[in-house]
Amino acid sequence: MANSSCSDVKVLGAWPSPFVMRVRIALNIKSVKYEFLEETIGSKSQLLLQSNPVYKKIPVLIHGGKSISESLIIVQYIDEVWSSGPSILPSDPYDRAIERFWAAYVDDKFFPSMQLINTAQGEEKAAKVEQVTEGLVLLEEAFQKSSKGKAFFGGDRIGFLDIALGPMLGWLRAIDKMGGVKLLDEVKTPGLVQWVESFCADGAVKGVIPDIEKLLEILEKMKGN
Amino acid sequence: MAEEVLLFGVWGSPFSRRVEMALKLKGIQYKYFEEELTNKSPTLLKYNPIHKKIPVLVHNGKPIAESQVILEYIDETWKDCPIFPKDPYERANARFWAKFIDEKCLPGIFNACWGEEKQHQNAVKEACEHLKHLENEIGEKKYFGGEAIGFVDIVANIIGYWLGLFEEASGTKLLTREEFPKLSNWADVFVSSCGIKENLPLARDKLIAYFRSRFGTGSTDASK
Q: Whose CA is closest to A87, among A37, A144, A34, A152?
């Protein structure tokens, strides 16, 4: 399949968003060059409003003039269009279903439980910590079953579920470093602790998920507000 | 190898009916187990320990949960009568609208029918905005899937059939023919389509009574 020119593929996003990170990682896996159009926090560009009129949210992938939104839908689109590159979803329908199930869990249950955990206080924080920890224990189980002893949910290489969860835990790792909580626990979730390091160090991910120091900077700013 | 397909569902649930619609459209034989929502079977809890919900499809001993995930699995496993388009952009579009229906439309409809009374007007406005997006998406097509029933049509079974029941149970009318002529037309075509009409729970009174007892009689008595 012919390589698209850079201008053919655009990503509308903002670098801190874990949803935007998913799309960029997927494009990197397929070695697809793209133009990254960074949205300003607090305002939405005309292009964003035109290309995602229903949700008006990032990320949006614009490919050959057509726009696709919702990060996991975009990742599947990328996998299907650039089919000659390394596969993102596994080939077996049952394995695909399991990855889709857990990716939906990450979006519907796990991510909402994570939100605002770093700025929460007292009882509210304790409740959030408990919820996130429960989620991580479930995800640890899923990881052990899925990876079958290998480095990633997808096996030897990063796959769909790695991409879905990775940016979330990339942020969580930074929240842990801020102190006060220990969400990613070597005792309760040893697999995930190792996995998030491997994920963030992967070639397709480096440069998309910034170093932990930069993430900490943002978290400190959020706490200060 | 003998194929074994089991489905755990609830007769009145649009989510479990979606799976039945797909199985029947593709001519797949399956064994159905009716669950009681207030008394879930140990088998169901074993097959779906995370969400403990129906529907669950079990294919040769392997369980799959979440209706949209099940539908994708069915389409990838049994290739006759595909419910997904082939083109990646069309597929992304189908997934987008299916997600929109479950994530936005359905909660919006519930809110309009059974939300707080003081928010009722706003809730109705929002629910209608969602329906407007679907009105624009169906356009002049016979089905969301084009000439044949597709993934989005099956997921939109809630709009096609259950919405009418919610409206009657709660007294809030949302899908009017005047405001949504194309979507109303699609709903008529959908419920009378082969493969769909045989899979709709027809005991409307029983369902309406059930929704009233579970969710209440509605946000307002005024809008009948």
A: A152
Q: How many CB atoms lie within 10 A of CB B35?
A: 20
Sign of the Cα pseudo-torsion (B150, B156, B160, B162, in order): positive
Q: Whole-model pTM?
A: 0.94
**Structure letter (DSSP) for residue B118:** G
Asked if B59's CB is within 8 angstroms of A101's CB, the reply is no
Domains along chain A with CATH numbers = 6-81 (3.40.30.10), 93-224 (1.20.1050.10)
Residue from the list A68, A93, A105 with its beta carbon closest to the beta carbon of B77: A93
Q: What is the pLDDT of residues B23-61, one digit of tens each?
A: 999 999 999 999 999 999 999 999 999 999 999 999 999
Q: Which among A77, A96, A104 has the least Cβ separation from residue B92?
A: A77
Q: Considering only residues 33 to 92 of chain B, which have any Cβ-Cβ distance to chain A shorter than 8 Å?
A: 50, 59, 62, 64-66, 68-70, 72-73, 76-77, 88-89, 91-92
Please, which residues have CB within 8 angstroms of residue A145's CB and are 6 or more apart in sequence? none
